[in-house]
């Protein structure tokens, strides 16, 4: 009989959530030759779980020597999935960094970013999967060696584009490339630069990762890449894939077979052994920030990954985030500008329509002002399309009784239930609860309850009434619930089957509409006075993006207009918008941020707490604050008092938050590392507290 192979202490990252108190990888006993990055089955408690063999020492995550179990008490690792090449050192460094920066456990993050199906496989099943993949690849290889791309396949670059591409290629040739911010209007040819830079990376035999903010935008970009790189292996990675597709695509990337990986934020963790370029399209978009679990920013992690892998990161936007803009101003990022629209297309003329000058008549709706209706009618007569943009779905934000002042409040949230006329429901957009519209006021019996305000559904109805014969269509989260419905609705717009498109931010982003010559924002003022300091930044980029939908076709550019109906036409934001002057807007915002000591000049973390009572949530944060003040590391930090969140109650949960402000990232990180263990302990003592979470670099305050 042969002797058992020599074994050693092996560290394995398992999915133990941080609040279990287990932060680092756990110790097991395994064979000497077990390579870090290998997937293994292990027992955790009484469960068989998937784990990932980690390195011997993960910095700062290790238990002190005396808390480690002696080898005699360690459990052996189970079956190893060693048919799969190990996840690389660099991949593990990325996960380690993200876990530490966003204050999660390594195992939780590492397992969460792997395809869910992978976690359920045993070694035999994995081998079967890999064999199947080999077969499919072999079959594909017999048809479709990738044809090299020839100049005939692609447009000749403009002088500006050529300069931009040269700059990107120059970076790619460096030992440690600096991230680049590609700043260019919509339609200025940024995507063409992504394609050319990708082409160069593919020619070097490297893989390319392209991130897009919205799942809805992946098919469009995928089509453009597929057309250019016919015969190349392109896969997508996003949450809309079936588990089987996601595993297949992930494996293709991990095995180095997929040359291009396109995906949403989760794709930033795709394992790609020959990564040569990362593109982050619309880098300013809030959807790059994960809003639960590990609240990571895929944009920021992409930059870190580029630094780790020594590959260029191309951040593209017409309205960069102020963080990225500031990095470009300071020289940390290389700025590359595209200032002209391709083919002479111009940006639409922006008209600020002063709502104060409208004659106000009782009972007459002002949202669709007479001049706006005239402008829409003109487009109709010429057979051109218009886009009317309102960032609020539903028919009306609230139903109201003017006898007793009853409002359609959500019984579970501190918010109104939104009136949806189509299915006669009142729906809460926070907790999702839905009820039939009452026949009469539930409080006084008045049969005459009326909608207050306006959402896209009502706007659509009013437009159809005001412009008889016009083909009005609406695209928002309500009209696109069914799989494929967004695609078919967009196709109708492209085909010219729609005269007026009404929609939320969903239609403002990315789509390459060719026939639109008028974009109208009917009620954008709300964001000017939001308590969230990022609201103006979001509004500006949304309006620039919405405006960018018009005039993409050069022949129509001259007639293109954007209408902004506002009560504050003199506001600096609108003044910059009118001149399409992102630089002026950014400079005024940065100035404000600097004097108010807000990001990017300060670094924030937000702790949120939810409880069954106001006291539970608030007392937890008050205790947390006291614990913070007792820490010497909190010196020099600003600890704001706990306050209710903007929507304080959701689904019967009371929600509070507390903001921490630091002058430097490092200072904030050191403090959080010392403080959070105390919060885990506090949580166990606080009755009625249901959840708490920390959000580093929060987007919405
Ligand atoms: P952006 O990504 O900045 O919105 P795109 O790359 O999509 O811009 O370019 C806008 C349009 O112009 C696209 O239809 C694209 O195919 C086309 N285009 C881009 N570069 C050129 C070029 N050099 N010559 C001709 N057409 C181009
Ligand atoms: Zn009433
Ligand atoms: Zn609710």
UniProtKB/TrEMBL annotation:
GO molecular function: 3'-5' DNA helicase activity; ATP binding; ATP hydrolysis activity; DNA binding; zinc ion binding
Catalyses which reaction(s): Couples ATP hydrolysis with the unwinding of duplex DNA by translocating in the 3'-5' direction; ATP + H2O = ADP + phosphate + H(+)
Quaternary state and interactors: Component of the replication restart primosome.
Needed cofactors: Zn(2+)
InterPro entries: DEAD/DEAH_box_helicase_dom (IPR011545), Helicase_ATP-bd (IPR014001), Helicase_C-like (IPR001650), P-loop_NTPase (IPR027417), PriA (IPR005259), PriA_3primeBD (IPR041222), PriA_3primeBD_sf (IPR042115), PriA_C (IPR041236)
Superkingdom of this protein's organism: Bacteria
Keywords: ATP-binding, DNA replication, DNA-binding, Helicase, Hydrolase, Isomerase, Metal-binding, Nucleotide-binding, Primosome, Zinc
Sites where the protein binds Zn(2+) 2: 410, 413, 428, 431
A Pfam entry, by short name: Zn_ribbon_PriA
EC number: 5.6.2.4
Binding site for Zn(2+) 1: 401, 404, 441, 444
GO biological process: DNA recombination; DNA replication initiation; DNA replication, synthesis of primer; double-strand break repair
Entry similarity comment: Belongs to the helicase family. PriA subfamily.
Record-annotated membrane-spanning stretches: none
Record-level GO cellular component terms: primosome complex
Name the UniProt record assigns to this protein: Replication restart protein PriA
Cofactor binding note from Swiss-Prot or TrEMBL: Binds 2 zinc ions per subunit.
Occurrences of domain Helicase ATP-binding (ranges): 171-338
Organism: Roseateles chitinivorans
UniProt enzyme class: isomerase
Cited function: Initiates the restart of stalled replication forks, which reloads the replicative helicase on sites other than the origin of replication. Recognizes and binds to abandoned replication forks and remodels them to uncover a helicase loading site. Promotes assembly of the primosome at these replication forks.
PROSITE patterns on file: HELICASE_ATP_BIND_1 (PS51192)
